[in-house]
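Person: I keep going back and forth on a fold encoding question. Show me how you would write down a chain together with its backbone fold. Please set it down just below, with no commentary around it:
Helper:
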Amino acid sequence: MRSRARYLVGRDPQVAEIRQVLSDAREGRGGVVFLVGEAGIGKSRLAAEAVGIAFDSGMSVLRGRSSTTGPTVPFRPLTEALMSLFRSGRPMDDLPLGPYRPALGRLIPDWSSEAQDSSSMIILGEAVLRLLIATAPPEGQLLLLEDLHDADPETLAVVEYLVDNLEYTPVVLLATIRSEPCDALDMADSARRRGTGAVLELAPLTRPEVGAVIAAQLGTEPDGVPAAALERLWDDSAGSPFLVEELLQSMISGGALVQGEDGWRVVGDLRSDVSTALARGILRRIDRLGPQGLTLLSAAAVIGRRFPLTVLQRMTGVDDRALLSHLHAGVAAQLVVPDEPAPDWYAFRHSLTAEALLTQLTPARRAAMAGHAADAVQALYPDLAGDWCPLTAELRSQSGDLDEAGRLFAEAGLRALAAGAIGSAITLLGRAERMLAGSTDPARRAEVLEALLPALAEAGRFNEAFGFAENLHALGSLNAVRLAALHTRLAKVAHTAGRWEDGNRQIDRARALMRAEPDERSSAPIDVTAAYLALDTPGQDRTQLAEKLARNALQAAERHGLPTVVCQAWELLATLARERDFDEATALLESALSTAEKHRLPVQRMYALTRIGGNNWLTEGDTGPLLAARGEALRLGSATIVYTIDGILILDSVLRGRFAEAERSAAECLTVVQRLRLAPATRYVLMAGATLAAHHGDRPAMDRALSAFADWDGAGSQEEPLTLGLARAFCALMEEDRPGAVAQLRAVRELEDANPSTYYLSGRYGVGLLLDVLSGEVGRGPYEEVAATAPGRMRWNRQFVLFAGAVLLGREGRREEAAAMAAEALRLAESYPTALYLGLRLIAEPAHADGWGDPVTWLRRAEHHFHQSGVSQVANACRAALRRLGAPVHQRRSGSSAIPDELRALGVTVREYEVFQLLPERLGNKEIADRLYISPRTVEKHVAALGTKTGHPSRAALCEFAASVLG
């Protein structure tokens, strides 16, 4: 159908830009345009002009609009737009969509099948992109999505994918968005910043442009508009084209503005309340349609701003001829418009029109009409597929039938959850729960809560989820199985939030309820949730208990056909299997992934992908699968997984030496996870932040991060060993305090023996092994045992294992093999500069002693790196080692910027300041000399100079002064 605005005023620059984008698309250079402005500013009119331009140039047009009736429905505007392809009569079965066609079954009912992919938003986005390209004629294709501010999160996820990938296609995406805070507007702004989309902001009309609109409406020239009318409309409309037209119609219908032989003139009072004038004007125009027209449009307003003729006719009983006659009259009166491209759908030109109609209905009349509308929908579409279900739920709610409304909202929410639309599911299930709060059937409300609680947890909305725990007593008439299921859901929420004590209390309540009537089917979800909590609960046997519970749950779930529990159990068992064999862990995760895909469990699929990505990162150092899983979690709306992966990516940046990037990302992420009270993610990010400071040798910053870590229940957590092995031990090594590092790594062993961890980067299988080999505490046998373990083969650990192996080979006189193994270690460590240069610093002197490798070159490289990084103590140690090896050493005098201003003013030198920094520890001259790799005599001279320069000649006074300056 051809569509075009009747007239367009003040939008020439925007029209020109749209013409250019459409022209580019015809040359194979697609684009994205967002029309942004307040309600009534003319977005739809400009979009209609774009449609007319596209039609004139031979382009095909697909149109969809987000729902403004009731809650959002996943993918509604996309489905509406794409369905028009199937009404065109062109063959669709032979399109070159390849493996992406099944994914489109989520949007196109004709292509729906049992085998369709029901989870990946990335795949769905690619599928839509390929369909748009495949169906575009040579002249190109325009996809128009209106009212994107009302779109569901899932639609926005697909649209965002299109925005990033339309550049080299013959497709233009044009979307309208209100200029009010919303996710769609954020997406448009992001696209503008990235250069992947244009944002055309529609400003209010100027005074001359308002005059031009009035003239067009009155059928006269601008100078024929009465000055008083222009002044009033300019003042009252604030430049909104819609308000100009409505207020003008109100003036005319009220008799204040009339047309005479000499043109239009004012004959009455033009002043009135804008909202009242609008309502009166709209109702006056409706009155002219007669009583049946008023009834018909009132019924349409009850349905919503958009309404289908089939439902309207069914609820009013009007015959075809009368229905179309009144609708055409409504179109002529500028009250309603055909809702292209949906056949047999109309829409009110503005939401104010529908609101004005509703004001003249009594509450009882409106409720009755809503009930008739719901009856009509259910009679015509008994399956309530797609958005018929939430529409009917909204109508039942308006009619006062809260139980039925709750049931329908619950059904719509469960459908959204099954499709992986977590955001929409929470909205719909939340409505259902509120509707059923006063229901006499608590089982139905319990069913809603069983789905709503985990969805809230995935979205990071823990306070809302825990709020329901206080009201479970109101469901006391439930049977034990149903009530136990709710306590289990709350336990899972607690696990996700990192609140293992609360989770264990909920598990105890669930088990107490099941004690009287044991039921294996109902106990399986309890066992698997208890297994996850066991792994978080401090205790020496936590991994064994978690594995036992998970295996019990798996066996019961397989017997009773509980695929969600099967996936959860396999995922946990895979985590535990990493210590034995990564191949075994990956096989278990592949089984979980396959089960999730087979049973259309998008959340469990996302978890499996995340754990597979985590395994890839641990074994290969590859973040690609993790990033893909993060994108999937983002599109599903799982805040918990997004920020869990962010924590891993931050740590990866630290280990790769991308310190500025890591610091920036950690600050951003920490703000969010602390606000959401995501304890596990918060602890992980704080641990990564402490590691960042440690690798800089910045002990105060590390201590601050670890203090915050302790405040988030860090003691006994799985992240605690990492704070010792990745942070404290490395900080000691950056201070050349090798005994201190060894002590921290001993503490790691004690901690992991008392509270086994499934995190294996704490140094026990890496840098700790290297230090033990260097000290002579570990020989060939124990080394081979560690090197053969799965954690010993992890990417971060493996480089240290190889360094240690090279040292052992050198001691055994196998010099060539030692050099070869060191070369392999250097190759592996290339991506991890701190590990690389620390390894070189640690193995250089043993290599020199045993006559293998290139220790002088290694020390020079390490010295240069740590000097550039500002880690002076390691750089000094490298220089001292070079001297011991008889190699020439280039003196460096940088570092004066680190000296406090008050000391620099006293003439304190860089070397004197290095001594000054150690004085608060009350070390003797020999201890300081050992730390700085200088002679005790030199230390004595520096201390004497410091006493003179600072005015504190006694050593005790100088130490006190140093402590006060350094804080």
